[in-house]
Design a protein that fits this description.
By secondary structure, the chain is of the alpha/beta class. The chain is 42% helix and 22% strand. It contains 11 helices and 11 strands.
């Protein structure tokens, strides 16, 4: 009796349901009806004679076997996509679709310049972008949802290859009338942890800020969190504290129309490394290196050399 092999479509449905935890939302992400997705998973369970999902009116709960199937399905789907990538890489480089995740502390400041440059140099390239925190972006990369990620090192992103683009200096930002009146270059020891404003967990810039200060106790002391750099700037401008900002955000005008002063920090790690990251051994690795070269060569970027 021949062994039944799940289809890629059934595995896609299963993975989508796990990610969304809702049949309707999973179906939307797969561009099918809810009945089609539900039927595909039921057929998979029936042909394998196993239960993968426990269905109730309120909860979608995966069985232990179902979770194991999802973990394996991620790898199968990713490898199936790589078959297509092998064919793409055999032709003209940087033609067609590339899906890229970009972290929020880079996207609004770098993307306008990047997209303009790519339109000029690679008009046949279609770059599909999604903005995600560093942790979510790396998960998307390893699950095959994106092809590469534009993020900031250091950050643990798993088994990847990367190309560093440039260093982005970090500055301490404080209200113009700050009573402590920090010097032209700020020593990390002068940073008042009781006033430090940081991004929420999941943003690598939070970890970079703490590394700059070289004071791990600030993690517990940080009393206020922001959802974005723009939110942090508004908080500082309203006298709620001080924060750290990357140079690319300052150069892009994030402090325009505010009463905030930004000064450099005297620390060995007073910068983050902007990098393009992709899965290790990806068949499109040469394309991503070429894409990184285009980014580095762009004359519109101000690159800090450390």
């Amino acid at each position: 009796m021949p062994t039944y092999l799940p289809t890629l479509k059934q595995l896609q449905y299963l993975v989508a349901l796990k990610e969304h935890g809702h049949f309707g939302h999973a179906a939307q992400s797969c561009f099918v009806t809810q009945s089609t997705l539900s039927g595909g998973i039921k057929e998979l369970e029936s042909l394998l004679d196993i239960v993968l999902v426990e269905r109730t009116r309120r909860v979608v709960r995966f069985t232990e076997l179902g979770n194991k199937m999802v973990e394996k399905a991620h790898r199968i789907l990713r490898e199936a996509e790589e078959l297509s990538e092998i064919a793409k890489s055999a032709g003209k480089p940087l033609v067609g679709d590339i899906r890229m995740s970009v972290i929020p502390t880079i996207a609004p400041f770098l993307l306008p310049k990047l997209l303009s440059q790519l339109r000029k140099e690679r008009p046949e390239l279609k770059l599909f972008l999604r903005e995600e925190t560093s942790r979510a972006a790396c998960e998307s990369l390893h699950h095959g949802h994106v092809d590469c990620v534009l993020l900031a090192h250091p950050f643990p992103c798993g088994d990847v290859e990367s190309e560093n683009l440039f260093d982005d200096e970090l500055f301490i930002a404080f209200p113009k009338d700050d009573p402590r009146d920090p010097p032209a270059q700020v020593d990390p020891a002068l940073i008042d942890e009781s006033r430090l404003l940081l991004l929420e967990d999941g943003h690598c810039l939070k970890d970079h800020a703490l590394a700059v200060c070289n004071r791990p106790e600030l993690t517990a002391s940080a009393r206020m969190m922001g959802t974005s750099l723009h939110t942090l700037v508004q908080m500082v401008d309203n006298g709620l504290g001080l924060t750290l900002l990357p140079k690319m955000a300052i150069d892009s005008g994030i402090l325009d129309h505010t009463d905030i002063i930004a000064r450099p920090i005297t620390s060995e790690r007073s910068f983050r490394e902007i990098a393009l990251v992709w899965r290790k051994n990806s068949p499109r690795g040469n394309e991503f290196r070429l894409l990184a070269d285009i980014m580095k060569q762009s004359q519109n970027w101000v690159i800090s050399q450390k």
